Amino acid sequence: MIVMKFGGTSVESAAAIERVAGIVRARLARRPVVVVSAMGKTTNRLLSIANRAVQGKRDEALGELMALRDFHLRESAMERTVDEHFQELGELTRGLAILGELTPRSIDAISSFGERLSSLIVTNHFQKLGMKTRHVDSRKVIITDDRHSQAAPLFELTYEKLAATIPPLAHDSVVVMGGFIGSTQSGVASTLGRGGSDYTASIVGAGVGAEEIQIWTDVDGMLTADPTIFAGGHRVRRCSFEEAAELAYFGAKVLHPATVLPAVEKNIPVLILNSRRPEGEGTRIVANAVHSTNVAKSIACKKNVTLVNITSSRMLMAHGFLHRIFEVFDRCSVPVDMLATSEVSVSLTLDRTEKIAEIRAELQSFAEVTVEDNQAIICLVGENIRYTPGVAARAFSALGDINIRMISQGASKLNIGLVVAEDDLKRATEALHNEFFSELDTEVFA
Ligand code: ASP
Ligand code: MG
Questions:
Q1: What's the gap in Å between 37 CA and the centre of ligand 1?
Q2: 42-54 and 79-99 are packed helices; what angle lies between their axes, rounded to 10 degrees?
Q3: Would you state the pLDDT for residue 412?
Q4: The pTM is what?
């Protein structure tokens, strides 16, 4: 068995679904289990409908809902199914308008409809195209805790259900199921967090013991640099799970960071493939380290980062400084991304700043604080970084006159992170790419 996951763009229309069918058909012998996202921008649209409803803009919300219904009707020709689902959505929307309050649980109730519909629609298209196809309702097999909107799967239960349900069907049919959604043990719809369909694919792959998990996207695979920042990147043919997780965490948009975990545990390779060029080789992510003569596999980056510098000379030789700092971030539930410390100062980066005024005020009660917006993290990722001396020195000299605001090497020693002003990001990425990728190990890069 293989798991094939297709994102929102890949199933955004009847024509797109037909292309997906072609890709799946060419792999029937490998017994595909297909995981799909909601069609196009459906999840965003459902969330916007919910928000409007609770803001008292009931009619606007219902209008948007009608437009979304028409879109699904047009691309599916499944009148009854679409009508039934939108009837329920209409009731939910009216209910939200009356309550005027949006809870994580009701967000899940609404946003789950995207994948509930898309999976039924894709199943129907496949059947019409002559493929024997069975639909599996993800809510019956992906069982989660009740932290709605960010639910975590209950792995033992989920794997048990997947193993009992999927293989007997996949034996002679394509199985289609929705990503992103599941249900709690009491049967209430839940979701795994935005972008969660990749995670579903990985969970399903682990649960059925798939030989491979394929994530079909609209890029050729992972690249040596973020293509929106630097156009001259090369495809990474192979990398390790650890590298992929690090890259995903630091902003490589091709993969959800949590995605790889279930696959890692069961040692199942994950492939990133391009549905517009299905014959391409993509990127293969594997459990073991992938050695190459290039010290780095890729340069990831993250924009819109805020740098916080905290200094206290009174804290010289005093203990408890870090403790007090982290207490503040903990109290405000704001995660810290990168961190560097000296005896009397701490620099850290945040990518959520809605509580920055509160954080600053609390920190100022015991330290001096400066906050700088519009910073960016550039992260050099590669297994070999931990075995190769002088990588930081090479990065520094490549960056020349670009001001480096902070540097940190994680305990994994898999990456070196640098903070620069956002205005310098493009120049810095280019310089690092020249330094680390002008000669390529063709075993590992294309
Ligand atoms: N449809 C969900 C989202 O937009 C899940 C996914 O596409 O992966 O977040
Ligand atoms: Mg996605």
A1: 6
A2: 30
A3: 67
A4: 0.86
**pLDDT (0 to 100) of residue 134:** 98
pLDDT of 354: 87
Q: Is the CB of 196 under 6 A from ligand 1?
A: yes
Report the interhelical angle of 58-76 vs 42-54 (nearest 10°). Answer: 160
Q: Which ligand is nearest to the CA of 200?
A: 1
Ligand nearest to the CA of 253: 2
pLDDT tens digits along 86-130: 999 999 999 999 999 999 999 999 999 999 999 999 999 999 999
Q: Distance, CA 56 to ligand 1 centroid (Å)?
A: 26
Helix or strand (DSSP H, E) at 143: strand 143-144
Q: Please tell me the predicted confidence (pLDDT) of residue 253.
A: 64
CB–CB of 214/4 below 8 Å?
yes
Ligand 2 center to residue 212 CA distance, Å?
A: 19
CATH number of 2-218: 3.40.1160.10
- The CATH label, of 3.40.50.720, 3.40.190.10, 3.90.980.10, 3.30.2130.10, for the domain at 298-436 is 3.30.2130.10
